[in-house]
Amino acid sequence: MKLLHVLCILFVFLLPAAALDREAFTFTNYRLDVRIEPGQQRLAVRGQITLRNDSTAPQKNVSLQISSTLDWSSIKLAGKAVQFVSQPYTSDIDHRGALSEAIVTLPQEIPSKAKLELEIGYEGVIPLDTTRLTRIGVPEELAKHSDWDQIGTSFTAVRGIGYVAWYPVGVESANLSEGNSLFETLARWKTREGASNVQIHFEVVSATDSPLELAVNAESCKPGSIEAGRGQITSIDCSFEFLAATVPTFAVAPYSVLNQPTLDIHYFPEHKPAAENYELATELALPFVKEWFGTPRGKIKIVELADAKASPFESGNMLMTPLNSDSRIAGLTVVHQLTHSAFLSPRPWIYEGLAHFAQAAYLEQQSGRRAALDFMAQHRTALVDAERSLAAERGSSTSANESLIATSREEFYRSKAMYVWWMLRDMLGEEALKKTLALYRPEQDKEPSYVQRLIEAQSKRDLEWFFDDWVYRDRGLPDFRVESAYPRPLVGGGYVVTVTVENLGEAGAQVPVTLRMEGGEIIRLLEVHAKSKSVLRIEAPGTPQEVIVNDGSVPERDMTNNIFKINPGTK
Ligand SMILES: [Zn+2]
């Protein structure tokens, strides 16, 4: 009771007037001058932002949030300073787990749909910070490979919302320890900001004579002037247009740049052989990608991260990753990026799912089906865990909607979607799927069923059940078991084996069934719908030994019940 009382007082103190709606405004336009001083780890920003009141109520207050290591210096409306209170606001949309929030009190209310232009200024430092991860128990050593953002003397890389609020945003607090709260908050922001425009003039001040290269993931950048020598300033003007898909990000380091027609790599000079490896991998992978997804629309851009164990990050046309000298990994990396460049879709399960599928298919072409299935299996555990925790959540709330068309979870729109494309390829055949992809037009993809209709027109198959189980709804994963396998000897020699496969799960699939026998194996595909059984007869020239359902091409929640030993006595 006492605690509640204290909380009430706090609330009253923080929100003097009406409750603050942090997501009332859409930030429709940013025009920022960003000065980066790596020597001081410093960032200073001046500029204008345009906000539109997209709530239904008039608003008297605006929330502007930046990373908590940055401080607000000024906020003006029509040339006049406006009243604002700056307070710390706990939120995991930033690596520090806290924001500097300016709560601006406007001279008059902004009606619904009306716009507001503010002049803003803020500055501070952006050091490496793992607070939001270490406070939920992630060991420091692991956390810094994931939250690697920083402005530093020798290396700078800073991602936007979800990592570092280096440009102002306005969202309700997100908490990493509360289920999917962070991804849902970010998804709401991206939806609101889908049509927003960001223009940034970057200036990098170098503290030494060595030139610094700036890499930005914007659709277009125009290099500005370079003032050489000590204290040299490099400038560049960039424009971001698809904030629904792009998190504005920049990197600064004494990079060398390898600039090829299909590839642009920013790398550390000592890693030149690795960079050349990626160049070769791109040449080798290009014909495969063209055949499947068409000609890439532009260059792929790879920016090296200084920490060799850093988790890669992709956004817009840029991939940030430590370079790997293993040419197999370089190959998989460039296939993913080339696929993005060749095949656009506004739907993450199509855009990312196909890029992951492309990796598996490329591996299959190079090293065989087993290698591809082993690669896909690396995605399986995370997917099974995500489905399991979701099933537990679903028990308590019915709002959880993680269908592929609605999900904001990476395990779904990446891993599960990869499997969905792989299964579609197995069902339709390579040629039919390639033809469908060639007909796909992102601007026509307005209805969730658009891609299903394209595929059905091409393959002349009814796939409603498949899309229903895997794409439009989240029905979890199948669970196959071989219920029985009866071999019957044939008069002229050999056997016919009658196999019954049961699917205990809520999602159906066409699954490979392997019959192992003396002298080899036979693989057949069998469609087994959710909560049902299907029967298959396989003719075998040799003595049948065992039946295995699912070679790993269908993600399944339990793979321990998939083998059936055929008893020689049951002949
Ligand atoms: Zn991707």
The CATH architecture assignment of the domain at 348-472 turns out to be Orthogonal Bundle
Flag low-confidence runs: 1-17
Strand coverage percent? 25-35%
Q: Rg to the nearest angstrom?
A: 27 Å
Give the helix tally: 12
Major pleated sheet: 8 strands, mixed
**Shape verdict:** elongated
Number of E strands: 27
Structure report:
The chain is α+β, with helices and mostly antiparallel strands. The protein contains twelve helices and 27 strands. The strands form six sheets. Strands 5-4-8-2-1-11-14-13 form an eight-stranded mixed sheet, with no helix packed on it. A five-stranded mixed sheet has the order 16-17-18-20-19. Strand 21 and strand 22 form a beta hairpin. Helix 7 packs antiparallel against helix 8 and helix 9 packs across helix 10. The protein is elongated and about 95 Å long. The N terminus is likely disordered. The structure holds zinc ion. The site of zinc ion (ZN) has 5 residues, from helix 6 and helix 7. The site of zinc ion has 5 residues, from helix 6 and helix 7.
